[in-house]
Amino acid sequence: MGRFCLLLALFGLASAARAEQPIFSEMPRWSGGWGVQVLQEYRHEAGLYQGKRLLGSDLNRSAHLLHVEGVYTWDKSIRVTAKVPVMLSAQRRTLSDDGQPSTRKKTALGDPTIALPLKKYFNLDGRSGSWTLAPQVRVPGAKASSDPIGIYYREVGLGLSLGYETETYDYIIRTGLSSFTFLGDTPTLSHLELTLGLNFAFGDHNGHVKLHNRLRHWDGVEVTYTVGPIVYLRWTDLLHFQVRSTHDVFQTQTGKVHGKAHGARLGVGLVF
Amino acid sequence: MTFRTFVFVLAALACFSVMSSPAWSKFPEVNQDVRDVEVKAKLKAQPDAVLVYAKGLCCPSCAIGIRKMISRLAFVDTEKANDGVELDARHQLVTITIKKGSSLDLNALADAVNEAGYEPVHAYQWQKNKVVTSTLGSQLFRVVP
Predict the structure, then answer these.
(1) ipTM over 0.95 threshold
(2) Chain B interface, mutation test: which of A121, A123, A174, A250, most B Cβ atoms within 10 Å?
């Protein structure tokens, strides 16, 4: 009962990992549409903190991740998405139990997530948009004891996200709140996101340039503000690209976590 | 609930209130007069085509479904570029090239736009040197001089 109430209370809070759904939060809007996207992510987190105290500026964590994601739209109001992350290579330099620095490396499957985005579209003269409610479940891709890197939580998590987006020919605005609660010891993770962008078109191609803002709240552990540009390009109806970088510009820690992260993500999507 | 959590929830609710505000409906909109001029120009250039005003068609990526749904219709000439379906997101217009000798089914056209996630409003054709408008889903006609 307590956990149920907590889940309800977290409805208005921001959500775990990425609220973005394939394909690049753009499509497929049409019944029977489906797609696959592959993203490569490079990430580096500098330093290890215990609350406000820096334990070591050389205690870093870096990772090269691969995300394979898919979507199928049954009807324009309901679709299913699946995200499977893979740690191609990850390295963490942290303190062992004896207080000495040690380096650990790992290649492993991440924690897959399945979501069921429910969408309500609205169409106005010159503007379109949607409301999205997405319940989701995350399952551990490996045992926590076998993963010294700690990028993934390795626990079953239940999430809910609420999003709103609207777009004209020139502008695009997205905002979202989501939250994940885990069935083990991992604290609740929440995100609040706001994305603002400008659309462009040339020849038969189009895309947009956006600025993504995210406030992340990891209950009792950290609060982080992340910002970064996103460039999306529709080359053809079939082929789509996205490049983005993310930078933690503010972080306050109350638990034991690595410091600010900087990363880049390159993606290719196919839509049918 | 800690103070920090309270501030976070408050910020989230404030953000949501702003984004849901009716003020966003005041975005610049393409009006019917602007669209009529564009319809006439397109039909003069391509008299055998049919144009559809699909309300909400602002993003060519999101509207890929319009091309996919319409190009499946039997009367569409998919031998033409872009499967016979051109999208104009600035004016929310879809230009459909009709196969020679085929008969146009406006109801099927409206259904296809609906399945793609947009609202079909009008269909435009060039007849006797004038634009003839059909309101999709009804029998109303309007002649645009």
Answers:
(1) no
(2) A123
